[in-house]
Amino acid sequence: MKKKTESSQSKGERRNQRRDITNAARRDRKADYAYQLINKRAAWAKYQNPWLTLPNPNTNETSKKFIRVKSNDYWGNPKAQQPFRMGQPGPEANPS
């Protein structure tokens, strides 16, 4: 029977990717507002409730140009916006 040899394990001392490449990719992601909004909408659809940064509707507060709100407060509960599924009665089936 062959003897089992021990394999070496990395110490985790050095990066496996160049730092400038990683930073450039992160900079591109942060610069694209549509990409951020798509990711936040996808997270909201998975019931994660991310923060959204929006222009302040109260124009008298000049010190706060933007405000942060939870996505459930802005878009509503994602569970209430389930798509129609075959075999389940729709909202018009309940005559109440």
Strand order across the biggest sheet?
Answer: 1-2
Overall, the morphology is flat
Radius of gyration from the CA trace?
A: 24 Å
The chain-level structural class is alpha+beta
Which series of helices and strands comes N to C? HHEEH
Distance between the termini: 76 Å
Helix content: 25-40%
* Biggest beta-sheet profile: 2 strands, antiparallel
How many DSSP-defined strands? 2
Ranges where pLDDT stays below 50 over 5 or more residues in a row are none
H/I helix tally:
3
Kindly estimate the percentage of residues that lie in beta strands according to DSSP: 5-15%
Mean pLDDT over all positions? 86
Give a structural overview:
With 96 residues, the protein is of the alpha+beta class. The protein has a domain at 21-79. The protein contains 3 helices and 2 strands, in the order H-H-E-E-H. It has helices spanning 19-31, 33-45, 71-75; strands at residues 51-55, 66-70. The chain has a two-stranded antiparallel ribbon. The longest helix is centred in the first third of the chain and has 13 residues, at 19-31. The protein is flat and about 75 Å long. It starts with 18 loop residues before the first helix and ends in a 21-residue tail after the last helix.
Give the key terms.
96 residues, flat, alpha+beta, 3 helices
Describe, in short, the structure shown.
The chain has 3 helices and 2 strands; from the N terminus they run H-H-E-E-H. The protein is an alpha+beta fold and 96 residues long. It has a domain of 59 residues.
